[in-house]
Structures are given as C-alpha cells and as structure tokens.
Write a structure and sequence with these properties.
There is one protein chain. By secondary structure, the protein is an alpha/beta fold. The chain has a seven-stranded mixed β-sheet with strand order 8-7-6-9-12-14-15.
Length: 341
C-alpha cells in the first residue's frame, strides 16, 4: 500500500500536489496546484488541512510565486502572495512559522534564480523536518499506549494532516508497528466530519480497528469505561500549556477529566507559540455559516438562521495529562515560555 502524502511537490516540480480531502472517503483524488490563488483556495476550503500540512503547503505556494512565466521576481515582489497565504487560516501557528522561515530565506536571497532555488529548498526542508518530527512524536507517544489500549481521538491527526505519519495518530501507528494491539474510537467531528470521513478512512486503510461515534456520545463512552486514553492534536499551544484544537476538543477533555481518563495532546514543536502566553490570547477562526446551514452540501438548517461556527476551541492546561512533542513527553505544570519544548 502506498503511503499517504497529503502534500508534496508535483511530479514535474512546478506545482504543489495535494490529496483533496474534501472528496474523501468517496474518492481518493490528487490535485496539482500551480498558483498561489489555487494554494490559498485549497487551504481555505480544507482541500488540504491539518496545522503542519497547511504550513508546508503555504511554504511551497510561496516558492511557486517567485516565478511569473519566464521571469523570476524579487522577494519584495511577493508581498501580495505572502499576505494572502498568511490570511488563509488564522489559528494554526504552523502556517505563520513556515512563512516566517520563507521570509528570512527570501530576504537573504533577494533576486534571480538563486532566490527561486533557496525558497524551494527551504519549503522542502520544512516538509522533511515535519516528516521526521512526526516519527519522533509517534515514538514518544507510543510509550503512553499499552497493549490492548482503546484510544479515543477527535478530528484527524494522521498522515492526512501532516507531512509524515501524523501527530496523535502517529503514536497509534508506532504502537501498532511495535506489536501492540490498539483499537481507536474516532469522534465524527462536526460539522465537517473529519473524524468519520478522514480518520476512519485512514485507519481502515492501515488495517487498524476503528469505530466512529457521534461527538455527543463520547462522554457516555468514557463513563462506561470503554476508553483507556484520549489523544488529540493541536493547532496552537500557548506557553502555559493551553491548547487550541478542532472545536469539540474542550468538552472531550472535560469529560475525560470527569471520568479519570488520561487526556493527551500531541504536536510538533512548530505548533508551540512562544508569543502566546495563554489560550485566551489565541485568535479563533470563525468559519462560514453555510458549513452548518448546508453541511456537506445538504440543507441542514434554515437558510437565514444565525450561526456560531468557530473552527477551534481552547482546552485549558489543567485538563491535559501530558503534551507529546518531537522532543519528549511534557508533564504539568507546563512552562514553554523560554523556548519551544
């Protein structure tokens, strides 16, 4: 079975190849994005998603923007492309970090083919680093998963969300590789069903037992003693350990705490934000009202009803049993103020 590659260079090197996640699980279809506009649209519409993956896609998109026809522009000429890519998803810090790295490289090579080469190399390095970080997260996270464990997760945190094997799901993959038997419960993750559409598809593809449940059923499952641990990803982690993740994570953490089930968060160092002290400081993206009014294209609410549709919520650090990064397992009390862990 071919490994999943959510984002990569196209075969000819002139585009960003993505697995269009809007079409899963019905169709597995890859697209080559050739322009910054196409990359921005893919990120905004969740054709490519997951904090690490969108950072990689944005970096590659900026590298594409340096060439206009047969002309290579200066980095100063990329201002519009940089701004548009930066604005696509405001909550995930990986996007900002990746573009900041590209900006530093661009300012050091401000013209010609040398600039184009340097930007492409940096984007490729961001991809390769994420791939390696995913593997290390998996190795550290697998130590938290016992043989026979029943794991509850939310949203999608696997290969579809990253440049490698994932973050939270990386721990499951490595645990299974080591010979452990692991079963996964996947919240469907409303309103766009990343758990049922993506996580279930990805785990079935890997031969790992998975059961999908409605988000609202998770608390009862925890109460009934059917879950040994919860593990989720993150889109931004504040210096005090507060975590922004897909909406629905916070109530899951509350339920896990109430029923004494360990609640873990897994993320690469690129997701830790040294400039954000606490969760209240994190800008939460508000998505289109039609994602709730017309879920996956079907009319599910009156056309003119007001909608509250945050893409993320914030889980306070005191509800988190441990945070797993590519540098280890971090236990409370959390203090990431000096540097990324």
């Amino acid at each position: 079975m071919q490994p999943i590659q959510a984002v990569a260079w196209s075969e000819d090197g002139d585009g960003v190849r993505i697995l269009d996640q809007r079409l899963l699980p019905e169709r597995e279809e890859y697209r080559d994005l050739r322009t910054v506009d196409e990359v921005c649209d893919a990120i905004k519409t969740l054709a490519v998603r997951g904090a690490p993956a969108i950072g990689i896609a944005a970096a590659m998109g900026l590298a594409l923007a340096v060439r206009r026809g047969s002309t290579v522009v200066s980095f100063a000429g990329l201002g519009s492309a940089f701004a548009r890519l930066s604005a696509t998803r405001p909550t995930a810090v990986n996007l900002t970090r990746a573009l900041d790295r590209m900006e530093k490289v661009g300012l050091a090579h401000d013209s010609g083919t040398e600039l184009e080469r340097a930007l492409r190399e940096e984007a490729t390095k961001i991809l390769e680093e994420d791939r390696a970080m995913c593997r290390r997260i998996g190795e550290f996270g697998a130590s938290l998963i016992a043989d026979g464990a029943r794991v509850l997760t939310h949203c999608n945190t696997g290969a579809l969300a990253t440049g490698g094997i994932g973050t939270a799901l990386a721990a499951v993959y490595v645990a299974v590789e080591s010979g452990k038997h692991v079963e996964v419960y996947a919240d469907e993750t409303r309103p766009l069903l990343q758990g049922s559409r993506l996580t279930a598809w990805e785990l079935q593809r890997a031969g790992i037992p998975v059961t999908v449940l409605a988000d609202g059923a998770a608390a009862s499952l925890l109460r009934d003693g059917e879950v040994d641990l919860c593990i989720v990803g993150a889109d931004r982690i504040a210096t005090n350990g507060d975590v922004a993740n897909k909406v629905g994570t916070y109530p899951l953490a509350i339920a896990a705490c109430r029923h004494s089930v360990p609640f873990y968060v897994a993320a690469p160092t690129s997701t830790f934000d040294p400039h954000t002290q606490r969760g209240d400081d994190i800008l939460i993206e508000q998505r289109s009202a039609d994602e709730l009014r017309r879920t996956l294209g079907a009319q599910t609410a009156p056309a003119n009803v007001p909608v509250y549709n945050p893409a993320f919520d914030v889980t306070p650090a005191e509800l988190i049993s441990a945070i797993v990064s590519d540098r280890g397992v971090h236990r409370p009390p959390y203090d990431f103020s000096e540097r990324a862990p």
